[in-house]
Amino acid sequence: MCDKNPAYNSVRLCREWGEEFGAEVRQVQHHHAHALAAAADGGVDEPFVAVAIDGVGYGDDGAAWGGEVLYVEGTRYVREKHLPYVPMPGGDLAALRPARMAAAYFHKALGEIPRGLALYLPGGEAELALVERELKSPRTLTSSAGRFLDAVAAALGVAWERTYEGEPAIKLEAAARGGSGLQFHAEDQVELFAEAVEAARGGASVRDVAYSVQLRLGQILGAWACDAAARRGVGVVAVSGGAAVNDIILRGIAEEVSRCGLRLVQHRRAPPGDGGIALGQVYYAAYL
Predict the structure, then answer these.
(1) CA–CA dist 50, 253 (Å, integer)
(2) What is the 3-state secondary structure (H, E, C) of 47-114?
């Protein structure tokens, strides 16, 4: 059992062992495994809807997924909804330099790229010019909640680099402590980025904008999960992925799931991040 990402060493090892031992190799999509890990943790053995949010997972279309609402039925899943795709300039490099993702979101949401972003890129103006060129013809697209949080963190001046896993998102959550909710009405994260920038430019505090962005993102995902559950006739919503440790986003999801009368399942024993992926893969195998 292993992931679908062809770049993972674990996938290479999985295939090698399959050949060595004459074993069948099963590859499980990253967010499907996250969803199943939450289900295993919560004792869910019925069809359910999952909100899977993280930095990146190899998608079936080759894009970098990470903001997904899935319908899961054992070994089968349907991608019901996802955060709209946004360019990821430089691929993995955009995860290390949040200003790159900020440039992508400014371009996508507001049709502009602030020149000041060059100050927060190691290559300065030359690097920003490369980013601009790639945004016109992007090689990598992402629906990642993590990359969205990176972009907001950079736009608000909370974090300009990632020196450890999840640093911009962690700092954004910390910056939101004590914040109060602004009236954001966005229906996806691209619209939400535009609202956040406009609020900050209008004089709203970083704390309030940071809090409101994360809460609204959770509400959007929760509402999508409710809609998917109603279509599929299921009563459980599970939340998993590396971003499922964010208390503010989880609060927004919980608000919506409670409003529509569904049961919310969160990780309690296994970690929601990639440390729980193997559990989801094994739970997948249990359905074979």
Answers:
(1) 11
(2) CEEEEEEEEEEECCCCCEEEEEEEEEECCEEEEEEECCCEECCCCCHHHHCHHHHHHHHHHHHHCCCC
In eight-state DSSP terms, residue 239 is E
Mean pLDDT for the chain? 97
Kind and range of the H or E run holding 120: none
| pLDDT tens track for 60-111 | 999 999 999 999 999 999 999 999 999 999 999 999 999 999 999 999 999 9
Kind and range of the H or E run holding 13:
helix 9-21
Task: Write out the DSSP string of 160-216.
Answer: S--SSTTHHHHHHHHHTTT--------SSHHHHHHHHHHHHHTT--HHHHHHHHHHH
Rounded distance, CA 108 to CA 279, Å? Answer: 37
Closest CA to 66 of 147, 159, 7: 147
User: Measured between alpha carbons, how far is 112 from 123 in angstroms, rounded to an integer?
Assistant: 20
**pLDDT surpassing 90 at residue 168:** yes
